[in-house]
Amino acid sequence: MGILSMAIFASIAVVKMQADISTSESHGRRARELAEKGIALAAHQNVNNGDPLLRFQNTEYTEGYEASRTSLAQTFGINSLISDLKTTLDSNDGTISSSLLYQLFTQAWGMDEGDAQTFLHCLVEWVDPDDQVTTISGWEQPNYEREGFAGRPFNRFFKTLDELQYVNGFQALEIAQPNWRTYFNIWTTGEIDLTSASPEIIALASMTDFGKSIDEGSARILQERLLGDDGMIGTEDDMPTPDINALLAEASGGDGSELQGRYTIEGKTPRFAVISSKGWSGSTALTINLSLQFQSARPLILERIETLENLTHEEE
Length: 316
What we know:
The longest helix has 41 residues, at 2-42. The protein folds into three domains: 27-72 and 270-315, Nuclear Transport Factor 2, Chain: A (Roll); 76-183, Ribonucleotide Reductase Protein R1, domain 1; 188-267, no CATH class. Helices cover 39% and strands 18% of the residues. Helix 3 runs antiparallel to helix 4 (113-127) and helix 8 (216-227) runs antiparallel to helix 9. It starts with a helix and ends with a helix. It is an alpha+beta fold.
């Protein structure tokens, strides 16, 4: 009888485990379906962030989705900034202090000026298609080979942010700003979108030789004026036909001339966008972040990142 009881209890435990696995898989599939639905709707350029289609919740079955579309120009396009830096070096006899990257590294993040110069020069040599050293402290193939790094530099612009860590001098950036990844992307131009960037990024984009022309408080006020009370682009309370030069002049307390070319207002249909959609079912949630380039009627997928969550575990 004891052996029979143990067998029965073991069978019940196995059946329960299989049922739990089946239920979890079912919730996982449903969460993915809902997240993908949010992606499809948010990717449509005629659907705005304020559209009720982007939000759905069924309390009876504990499921739903929520999606949004924002510009990728909410961070700095590192490839574009390096291209600008190369132009600056070619035209200003090697002076880099006027470049935004140099100002970010040294003034905003406290990197040593010598370390900043070395890293920036190495960035320029990394993307330069030839093997000639044209900067004061840049590295080319022989320098990397002496350190045991054959095949570097790649002699092209960056395809992922991870590639920055292969550039000589990168350690100085990692020490000065451990969260450097959150400030850069590899796709956009150097212009920051005033409607989607954080006040911190807007303020950093205003760096000059004399510090920030726009502080975070002024950046927040500027953004609130643009987006209205709901804080979303593409809704009825947005500022109609904003004058970007007038807004920058007011926020900086000057004429805003030194900030020309650093900002944009992309509106509801940005050229580069990130779509975030979270679908959930039961205790399972899946978030999909999709980076897109809208170059035609059919957008180009640049990057896709999925994050699976256990909602029950989070509540605990």
